[in-house]
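Incident review: delayed structure delivery

Summary: a single-chain prediction request sat in the queue longer than the usual turnaround. Root cause was a stuck worker, restarted by the on-call engineer. No data loss occurred. The affected request and its eventual output are reproduced below so the record is complete for anyone auditing the incident later.

Affected input:
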Amino acid sequence: ADEHIDIEFGTGVLKVTPAHDKADFEIGQRHQLEVIDVLNADGTMNDLAGKDLAGLDRFEARKQSAQMLQEMGALTKEEDYENNVGFSERAKVPIEPRLSEQWFLKYPEVEASHQCVAQGHMKFYPDRWAKTYDHWMTHIQDWCISRQLWWGHQIPVWYHRETGEIHCDLEPPADESQWDRDPDVLDTWFSSWLWPFATMGWKGDKAVDADNPSLQRFYPTTDLVTGPDIIFFWVARMIMAGYTFMGDLPFRNVYFTGIIRDKQGRKMSKTLGNSPDPLELIEKYGADALRFGTMRSAPLGLDVLFDEKDVELGRNFCNKLWNACRFREMQGGEMEGEIDPMRLTTDDKWILLRLNAAITEVKQAFEHYRFNEATSALYRFFWNEYCDWYVESSKAVLQSDDAAAKANALAVID
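Output delivered after worker restart:
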């Protein structure tokens, strides 16, 4: 019996294949079961699968196994059912878990990296992702750093051809011709976790790094912007690397963006063809319009349902800003002149109060990383209150012969 088994499900009997399933491997470890790998790297069955199945493709082996059970009179039932199966998007085939020999790294500075978020030394925005981070750090396992790929940083390990001795170092062994280098490469995150300091000329020598002006100025930095899907794969690892190699956090705040989806809520992808080209949008509306429109439609930590109308709104806002500046320029007079408090009208006082309120709202929104609220507050103030109301109401004063009143109105407009 094992805690993983649900005795009420099916027959209550569970097959256990420790070499081909993560949960089964853990069950096998608890019960000291033999680990038998019956798959070759190309997906065919090896000799351990038995002479009747050896050499067969995995899918053919399934059919053959069912046929053999039927001939033995041991097959009592066949039925279709849905199951969760790992699937390779690149190869378009189901994934078969298979035990293999890999290089692992025991994570450094786990406790300090865990507690820095729990104790508030590092802030997450939105803060709900702190629970996700806590779960990853509580259940952390050794890092498999080796990959069987063509491209990447090759693992600095050599094997002696005769003795099997392992040489692990940045430099190859002296008699390199007698050694074979490990063909595997490092996990891509193994270089990425060094990013906060490696990009600024970090040498790993405290004396040398102390004289590095870029490193001293920009490490630690203030903010990291990233997605929550890599909260452990990148964020947690950068924190651990920071404590290990630099003795400090790499950043103080982490802002997690949502995923940009189409209007139907689908993730954008080349396969679906629902991903607009940003360069085409910039060509059509302008870069500032794309920035403003996208930011205005992106609530803190929530997915964005992209609509080109938001970019169009951004363009219209930029045009409004441009036209307001042109209008002011056409009025002439001193730019950013002094306001005479004694000549302020009710309209002047009102717009100055609204300006202070807008400044406060935008500042608070930025401080809490609520960029959509900051842009919305800016939009409302500038378009609705400043342009549509105050500038329009000031035109009568600007067209009058009262030079002092006109100068004061222009100072308020500025």
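Verification: The chain is about 45% helix and 10% strand.
Action items: add queue-age alerting; document worker restart procedure.
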